[in-house]
Amino acid sequence: xxxxxxxxxxxxxxxxxxxxxxxxxxxxxxxxxxxxxxxxxxxxxxxxxxxxxxxxxxxxxxxxxxxxxxxxxxxxxxxxxxxxxxxxxxxxxxxxxxxxxxxxxxxxxxxxxxxxxxxxxxxxxxxxxxxxxxxxx
Length: 137
Description:
By secondary structure, the chain is mainly β. The protein has one helix at 2-16; strands at residues 38-46, 58-67, 70-79, 91-99, 117-121, 127-136. It has one domain. The chain is built from one helix and six strands, in the order H-E-E-E-E-E-E. A hairpin with a 2-residue loop joins strand 2 and strand 3 (70-79). The chain is elongated. It starts with a helix and ends with a strand.
């Protein structure tokens, strides 16, 4: 019985050692099975007046961007920790659609781009979620 328990314990330890390791300071691991087929080019950043207020819980950053030759406005909700606005700079980013705009209910909109949620891959490897809040020609 002891031999069986010893072999079982060793086998459990060998499976646990194959787990994915992550160290602080490293970029987060790539999400397997996800593809970022959409190209978004950000060309303008806007900070609302509330951004400069006294200790907000979340910071909001608006970005003017082009996606599939359409001009859109993206809204990023950033956590208060250290202000990640330096990560949202003008340039080209890869993205994927997380959530489509609502089709029914009180939040149904006329333009199908409004209220879509996208996940953008930043240059340092972390992921940032944004919502489309405006569309222009």
